[in-house]
Design brief:
four-stranded antiparallel beta sheet, 149 residues, mainly beta, 1 helix, Deoxyuridine 5'-Triphosphate Nucleotidohydrolase, Chain A
Length: 149
Protein backbone atom coordinates (compact mmCIF):
# COMPACT_ATOMS: atom_id res chain seq x y z
CA UNK A 1 0.00 0.00 0.00
CA UNK A 2 1.33 3.42 -0.95
CA UNK A 3 1.73 5.88 1.92
CA UNK A 4 -0.50 8.95 2.01
CA UNK A 5 1.66 12.04 1.50
CA UNK A 6 0.88 15.08 3.65
CA UNK A 7 2.68 18.39 3.21
CA UNK A 8 4.04 20.16 6.30
CA UNK A 9 5.56 23.64 6.53
CA UNK A 10 7.56 24.82 9.54
CA UNK A 11 6.75 28.11 11.25
CA UNK A 12 9.74 30.49 10.96
CA UNK A 13 11.84 30.28 14.13
CA UNK A 14 10.75 26.68 14.80
CA UNK A 15 13.53 24.89 12.94
CA UNK A 16 14.56 23.24 16.24
CA UNK A 17 11.07 21.82 16.87
CA UNK A 18 10.81 18.20 15.69
CA UNK A 19 8.21 17.65 13.00
CA UNK A 20 5.40 15.24 13.92
CA UNK A 21 6.73 11.70 14.08
CA UNK A 22 5.70 8.23 15.10
CA UNK A 23 7.78 6.94 17.98
CA UNK A 24 7.44 3.28 16.90
CA UNK A 25 6.68 1.57 13.59
CA UNK A 26 3.20 0.61 14.78
CA UNK A 27 2.22 3.84 16.51
CA UNK A 28 -1.09 5.22 15.23
CA UNK A 29 -0.28 8.75 16.33
CA UNK A 30 2.41 11.24 15.42
CA UNK A 31 3.78 13.02 18.49
CA UNK A 32 3.39 16.80 18.50
CA UNK A 33 5.95 19.04 20.20
CA UNK A 34 5.50 22.34 22.02
CA UNK A 35 6.82 25.37 20.16
CA UNK A 36 6.65 27.67 23.19
CA UNK A 37 9.31 30.38 23.51
CA UNK A 38 10.37 29.25 26.98
CA UNK A 39 9.09 27.32 29.99
CA UNK A 40 5.36 27.86 30.42
CA UNK A 41 3.71 27.05 33.76
CA UNK A 42 0.19 25.67 33.57
CA UNK A 43 -1.66 25.90 36.88
CA UNK A 44 -4.38 23.48 37.99
CA UNK A 45 -7.51 24.12 35.91
CA UNK A 46 -5.65 26.43 33.53
CA UNK A 47 -6.05 26.21 29.75
CA UNK A 48 -3.42 27.38 27.27
CA UNK A 49 -3.25 27.18 23.49
CA UNK A 50 0.14 25.61 22.74
CA UNK A 51 1.67 26.12 19.27
CA UNK A 52 3.30 23.12 17.59
CA UNK A 53 5.56 24.98 15.11
CA UNK A 54 4.09 23.80 11.81
CA UNK A 55 1.26 24.17 9.29
CA UNK A 56 -0.23 21.11 7.59
CA UNK A 57 -2.12 20.47 4.35
CA UNK A 58 -4.41 17.54 5.12
CA UNK A 59 -5.67 16.06 1.82
CA UNK A 60 -9.40 16.20 0.98
CA UNK A 61 -11.17 13.12 2.32
CA UNK A 62 -9.06 13.11 5.49
CA UNK A 63 -8.78 14.90 8.82
CA UNK A 64 -6.01 15.13 11.38
CA UNK A 65 -7.26 14.32 14.89
CA UNK A 66 -5.32 15.87 17.77
CA UNK A 67 -5.45 13.77 20.94
CA UNK A 68 -3.88 13.77 24.41
CA UNK A 69 -0.78 11.75 25.22
CA UNK A 70 -1.75 9.01 27.66
CA UNK A 71 1.40 9.33 29.76
CA UNK A 72 0.89 13.05 30.43
CA UNK A 73 -2.77 12.45 31.22
CA UNK A 74 -2.16 9.53 33.59
CA UNK A 75 0.84 11.00 35.42
CA UNK A 76 0.01 14.71 35.52
CA UNK A 77 -3.62 15.24 34.46
CA UNK A 78 -2.49 17.06 31.30
CA UNK A 79 -5.00 16.63 28.48
CA UNK A 80 -6.76 18.57 25.72
CA UNK A 81 -9.93 20.58 26.22
CA UNK A 82 -11.52 19.27 23.02
CA UNK A 83 -10.51 15.74 22.31
CA UNK A 84 -10.14 14.68 19.70
CA UNK A 85 -9.71 18.03 18.03
CA UNK A 86 -10.11 18.09 14.26
CA UNK A 87 -7.81 19.73 11.73
CA UNK A 88 -9.89 20.00 8.55
CA UNK A 89 -8.45 19.58 5.07
CA UNK A 90 -8.96 23.29 4.27
CA UNK A 91 -7.22 24.66 7.41
CA UNK A 92 -3.78 26.16 6.81
CA UNK A 93 -3.02 27.92 10.10
CA UNK A 94 -0.43 26.75 12.61
CA UNK A 95 -1.39 23.55 14.43
CA UNK A 96 -2.13 24.39 18.07
CA UNK A 97 -3.25 22.29 21.03
CA UNK A 98 -5.71 23.57 23.68
CA UNK A 99 -4.02 22.02 26.73
CA UNK A 100 -5.64 21.89 30.18
CA UNK A 101 -4.12 20.92 33.51
CA UNK A 102 -6.63 18.69 35.33
CA UNK A 103 -3.99 17.78 37.92
CA UNK A 104 -3.52 19.24 41.39
CA UNK A 105 -0.05 20.70 40.83
CA UNK A 106 1.33 23.25 38.38
CA UNK A 107 2.87 21.66 35.27
CA UNK A 108 5.65 23.19 33.19
CA UNK A 109 5.57 22.88 29.40
CA UNK A 110 9.04 23.17 27.89
CA UNK A 111 10.03 23.92 24.30
CA UNK A 112 10.24 20.69 22.24
CA UNK A 113 8.24 18.71 24.84
CA UNK A 114 5.87 16.10 23.38
CA UNK A 115 2.44 17.44 24.36
CA UNK A 116 -0.12 15.69 22.16
CA UNK A 117 -0.48 13.27 19.28
CA UNK A 118 -2.01 13.50 15.83
CA UNK A 119 -3.83 10.69 14.03
CA UNK A 120 -4.73 10.93 10.34
CA UNK A 121 -8.22 9.55 9.68
CA UNK A 122 -10.32 9.07 6.57
CA UNK A 123 -13.55 11.06 6.34
CA UNK A 124 -16.13 9.39 4.10
CA UNK A 125 -18.26 11.35 1.66
CA UNK A 126 -21.67 11.65 3.33
CA UNK A 127 -25.04 12.92 2.22
CA UNK A 128 -27.59 13.62 4.97
CA UNK A 129 -31.18 12.87 3.99
CA UNK A 130 -34.06 14.44 5.86
CA UNK A 131 -36.87 11.91 6.49
CA UNK A 132 -40.15 11.88 8.42
CA UNK A 133 -39.36 8.68 10.38
CA UNK A 134 -36.33 6.57 11.30
CA UNK A 135 -36.23 2.79 11.62
CA UNK A 136 -36.81 1.32 15.10
CA UNK A 137 -34.01 -0.31 17.12
CA UNK A 138 -33.93 -2.20 20.42
CA UNK A 139 -32.22 0.77 22.06
CA UNK A 140 -34.54 3.42 20.64
CA UNK A 141 -33.98 6.84 22.18
CA UNK A 142 -32.15 5.57 25.26
CA UNK A 143 -28.82 7.26 25.88
CA UNK A 144 -26.45 8.66 28.50
CA UNK A 145 -26.09 5.49 30.56
CA UNK A 146 -29.15 3.75 29.16
CA UNK A 147 -27.27 0.51 28.46
CA UNK A 148 -25.85 0.21 32.00
CA UNK A 149 -22.70 1.20 33.83
Amino acid sequence: MEALQIRIKRVPGCEDIPLPRRMTDRSAGFDLHAAVDGPLSLGPGEIRLIPCGFHIAVPPGYEAQVRPRSGLAARHGITLVNTPGTIDSDYRGQVMCPVINLGHEPFTIERRMRIAQMVIAAVPAVQLLEVQELDDTARGEGGFGHTGT
